[in-house]
Amino acid sequence: MELLNWLTNLFQLLKSGQLPEWGFSSYLILAGTVIVEGPIATLLGAGAASVGVMRPWLVFFSAAAGNLSADILWYSLGYLGKAEWLFNLGKRFGVSPQRLARMENAMRAHAAKILFMAKLSVSLVIPALIAAGLVKVPLKKWFPAVFGAEMIWTGALVLIGFYTTEAIKRVERGLEYAILLASALFVVFLFWLVRRVLGKAEEKAEVDE
Q: Is 17 helix (H, G, I), strand (E, B) or coil?
């Protein structure tokens, strides 16, 4: 009964937007969680902002900082590590010798373009960053492209998480669900576009080879 009362009170607070705001440490925790879980953590942070316990712009910057830190880490692993060691480490992240070889060939010619598009995907960004490190692509050549893509990707996730939570809070049909549907279709389109562009880049690299 106490648990039911607690959940009822929590629901009422969520509905009224009267939950107390979390402290600065919550943004540090969010940034660290984004390094591990990425999109899921960003969506949860945006949902927390929607109910008033976090601030949307701080969620955005925390998530972006976490993602960019992870990007630099993966690039550094490629830059400093040996390929054999990376293959053993990266099996769970889709890093295979064949994929990495194709990425390396394409990276030498189109590093900024490939990393920009890979950043807008979920499965291709880690192999792309490791390949950029292995071929020693200078930081100044790839980081601006990754930074720009990060602003788009994280901004889209924050908007989706925020307005999805708003739709759930209001439990109304109408504009909120239209926004949710449009956002979901946009993400699906991004995945399709990224895979198509990167696929063509890999095919071109194989032909050039």
A: coil
Closest CA to 97 of 112, 81, 84, 114: 84
Residue ranges covered by each domain of the chain: 23-208
CA distances from 152 to 1, 14, 145 (A): 45, 29, 11
What is the rounded CA–CA span in Å between residue 122 and residue 152? 14
pLDDT, tens digit only, all 209 positions of the chain: 444 454 445 445 555 555 567 788 889 999 999 988 878 889 888 888 887 888 999 999 999 999 999 999 989 988 887 656 666 655 555 566 666 667 777 787 788 888 998 888 766 788 888 888 888 889 888 999 999 999 999 999 999 888 887 776 665 445 556 666 677 677 667 767 766 766 666 556 555 55
Torsion of CA 184, 185, 186, 191, to 10 degrees: 90
Contact between 86 and 76 (Cβ < 8 Å): no
- The token pair at 127 is 């192999």
Give CA–CA dist 40/38, Å, rounded: 6
